[in-house]
Amino acid sequence: MPTEREYKYTKAKDETTAVPQSPKEQRQRYADLVSNSTLRTMHEIWESDRHGHVKTISLTGLVEHVDAATGRDARTTLMAVAASREQFEQLDLSRVKPADTLRHLNASVSKDMHALVPIGSATSVRGH
Known about the structure:
Elements: E1 4-10, E2 15-20, H1 23-48, E3 56-66, E4 73-84, H2 85-89, H3 98-104, E5 108-109
Antiparallel strand pairs: 1-2, 3-4, 4-5
Helix pairs in contact: 1-3
């Protein structure tokens, strides 16, 4: 993800400079991206199932990365959520805050996605 908040142009110097995001902004943008992508993915699955064959979706969000401590490839689970079609259809996605919606769905969400903090390994989610 970009680490710049914006770019500013100085006409007198004919120069463009980057204005960096704060670490807090970077963490929030990453969490927003994961939350939005999760709900969008669930929405697209329901929309593509025109005949109603899918009754429940259980979705686990993982990120593949290099473990900074070991230098080895790693997978970290950042989010897990499940919802029934009936439960999901009650949502008006045009008016929600995705992070609040995931909490409403009893999702398990990383305490700090940007730092790749995993959800608990004993965590499970079930659709209603």
